[in-house]
Amino acid sequence: xxNRFNLIDEAWIPVADCGRVSLRQIFIDPHLRKLGGNAIxxxxxxxxxxxxxxxxxxxxxxxxxxxxxxQGMADKCLSYLDKWHDRxxxxxxxxxxxxxxxxxAALKTLGxxxxxxxxxxxxxxxxxxxxxxATDADKAVTLVIQMAFGLSGKKxxxxxxxxxxxxxxxxxxxxxxxxxxxxxVGHMGLLHSFWLGNAxxxxxWLNLFTREDIAELVMYPSLGVAPWEQMPxxxxxxxxxxxxxxxxxRLVPVGKFCLLADTGLHYSDGIAHAGxxxxxxxPTVSVDFAPKKPAVLWVNPGKRPWRELTSILxxxxxxxxxxxxxxxxxxxxxxxxxxxxxxxxxxxxLRVSSNAGEQYASGTDDYVQSEFWLPTxxxxxxxxxxxxxxxxxxxxxQKQLWGAxxxxxxxxxxxxxxxxxxxxxxxxxxxxxxxxxxxxxCERQAQALINACGSTEDAKSQRLQLRKTFAAYASQVFxxxxxxxxxxxxxxxxxxxxxxxxxxxxx
Length: 507
Known about the structure:
The chain has 507 residues and is α+β, with helices and mostly antiparallel strands. The protein is 39% helix and 12% strand. It has two domains: 4-375, no CATH class; 381-505, Topoisomerase I, Chain A, domain 4 (Orthogonal Bundle), CATH 1.10.132. It starts with a strand and ends with a helix.
């Protein structure tokens, strides 16, 4: 088979304000600011770029990382890509991240493995949900996504098993099991976080682990070998087991075995990686292993990542051994904060639903992503304590608003006479809608709130001003949701309208 569409040379990676670029351009052009596409495209491509950089330029320690700089890392990555150029063809004898031996698996259209595309008997609501013609660039992105973000369900053909005697693709009855969720998705959609710099190449450098870092990662204390250098032959061969135990296996897990064809791809479960309940997770995921049952941060479209920032950065607290830990941020924060004046934290992912083992995006499920810039002068335990305090106060305002809207509609409603104290569904729905509107308005000021969590008098003054803004948002939402046009409405409005003087004057 002819080798064609080399990912090092061809334009396929979406970049914001630029269109598509090649792997080589990523490491050559420092003007490419950040990746484009949806949240899981950004995560999957960032992991791929990190896998290349870790393979090419893993420094020994912080000093070596600093001396190398992003330019030194980029040069090493370019030399590495030249060395392995023949392994980056999308089509050919050794197609990139694909398993030619999986060709017996059923052929699926690319839409079947894309959560935003309606397939089968799913209702098509917008044109964007219809399956479109896929270019080679589209296919390359889809392939990279499937390595870690393949969804569970019957769309996966597990009738083909490559490792003799492997039972991981069978159910209890000995028949082909439904496909498993990708290691970067989990049950509901894991929230991922990493650093952003002023350019894509700088962002990769900021997130690069040193050999010292990797040795201290209890979950995967070895770097491992990139799968394009050494692809597994099956689900549980020696190479597959090595990937399960290494950092490389979390960057490019090969969770699905794929083979691109003209009309779609052959698709089956690949390497089964352990999840957070078994004590392993991607470094970009925030996990609390302290409880008997570990806790993890999930993507929640109703609670945007800026509201999770205190949990994501919980590791900053001095002497705190419990709470959420995000190794991707924790292991790199010290050297990053000493090397650049400012950088951003990016968080995002895809919320998914599941039913009888079938994962899909439905209802309120959505891609979620956010980025916030952090001046290095701010970062520390004082900053985190201040941010926690302000977020706790803001939660109190939201609860006050929820209660006020519920009381207003309860007072006007003829259906809520139970006396049980519980809001009827209609009343609760109105209160919830008010809360959502409030948080949407607050998000406009999220960056300003982060900037105001310093210890100076100026920062304190900014926080007080922001409290006035947030209180005004709450009052605005109440007035929008609770009209006062009739005498009865005016009476309910006057009796239930919230006041936030306690919030405005709290320390």
